Input
Amino acid sequence: MTRMNRPESEAASRTSSGTGNKIAKTQIVDHVAEQTSLNRKQAGEAVSAMLDCMISALREGRRVGLPGLGTLSVTQTAARTGVRPGTSQRIQIPAGKKVAFKVASTLKQQL
Output
């Protein structure tokens, strides 16, 4: 279904920021500012610093544990044969890396 042909109920379910059910970084910054004594600028810097630290650790191949949420880690993917959609042509997909997320058992129980 194209963007222009979305049913009204689907369009109405999206938030005004256009992100649907996704929470944006600005919303996290606002929440941190509300929950702490930091102003919005300081909260933004704190959130950015945390994300930079997590990304740096993942680039180094380290795991990132977030208590109560889960663990992010980098895993290797093996080279494999895939099929190009539409043409059914077999293609080689090279080995690579991906970020994996394992949900914490406490969060899993709460959902």
Observations:
- The chain has two domains: 20-62, 63-111.
- Residues 40-59 form the longest helix (20 residues).
- The two ends are 30 Å apart (CA to CA).
- The mean pLDDT is 85.
